[in-house]
Design the sequence.
């Protein structure tokens, strides 16, 4: 199929790469040229400068964008040129209401839409093992399934438009909470003399385990904060989560503390570092750097 991909970042690049491997004719659009764009060009992808142009030459258009503003702007531009029979799939993490808006403006042109946020990070996209949480109707889902299988391992139709985003926001809430909890637990264990490799081996098979504990402990011990999932991205997701929770009348008591922790991490300049960088709150060096000079 002729597939367009808008947003060649940490997730969009490997997803587009796997679509090329699966034999699809891929065109890509990104707001700037980066290493991912250049690599995909070498793999045979066509580079187009604006999303609206990409939408005119593609049967299916996938988006993987970092913010709600970017999603809104790109979909409003593409909807102006959308045609009957096209399929648009948004893999970004945004509010369900925004994706329902995307579906509405595309539907007015006769095009179909799915919200399909993903989990599993860049490594999952490269391995083709992403969890894909889809919102839409059965017929559109079945049409999209062969494409989603290029990079998805677990692909689930969760309900109507917006249902995929609802599940993704639950996931992101737990990612944020468990990452902060694993950082606290690791710092606590180290201060008591525990070895983090032993913590991972023993707690990793106990009730206290979580996917974020197993993911983050090697990063804590290796001081590897290279941004697979940046602090700023999780802070953005928490902002959406708390807006949605407020509208639904659901108090997220723990979530409020977690969101403030991510905002504090951003204030310390860690926005572009991996979320595992939250462990630095317990570094004596970081504590000293953040404290006023007693002299």
Sequence:
């Amino acid at each position: 199929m002729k597939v367009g991909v808008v947003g060649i970042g940490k997730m969009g690049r490997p997803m587009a790469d796997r679509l090329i491997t699966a034999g699809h004719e891929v065109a890509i659009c990104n707001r700037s040229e980066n290493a991912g764009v250049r690599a995909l060009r070498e793999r045979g992808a066509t580079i187009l400068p604006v999303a609206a142009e990409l939408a005119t030459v593609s049967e299916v258009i996938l988006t993987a964008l970092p913010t709600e503003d970017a999603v809104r702007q790109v979909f409003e531009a593409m909807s102006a040129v959308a045609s009957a029979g096209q399929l648009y799939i948004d893999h970004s993490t945004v509010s369900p209401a925004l994706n329902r808006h995307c579906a509405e403006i595309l539907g007015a042109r006769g095009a179909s839409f799915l919200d399909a946020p993903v989990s599993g990070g860049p490594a999952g996209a490269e391995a083709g093992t992403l969890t894909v949480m889809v919102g839409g109707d059965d017929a559109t889902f079945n049409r999209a399934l062969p494409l989603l299988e290029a990079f998805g391992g677990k692909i689930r139709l969760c309900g109507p438009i917006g249902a995929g985003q609802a599940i993704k926001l639950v996931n992101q809430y737990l990612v944020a909470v468990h990452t902060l909890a694993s950082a606290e637990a690791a710092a606590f264990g180290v201060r008591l003399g525990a070895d983090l490799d032993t913590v991972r081996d023993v707690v990793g098979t106990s009730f206290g385990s979580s996917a974020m504990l197993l993911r983050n402990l090697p990063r804590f011990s290796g001081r590897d904060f290279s941004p697979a999932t940046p602090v700023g991205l999780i802070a953005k997701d928490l902002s959406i989560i708390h807006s949605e929770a407020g509208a639904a009348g659901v108090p997220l008591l723990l979530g409020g503390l977690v969101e403030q922790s991510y905002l504090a991490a951003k204030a310390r300049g860690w926005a572009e570092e991996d979320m595992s960088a939250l462990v630095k709150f317990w570094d004596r060096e970081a504590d000293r750097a953040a404290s006023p000079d007693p002299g």
The chain has two domains: 2-160, 166-290. Strands lie at 2-6, 25-29, 46-47, 60-63, 87-90, 112-115, 118-119, 130-135, 152-159. The mean pLDDT is 95. The two ends are 67 Å apart (CA to CA).
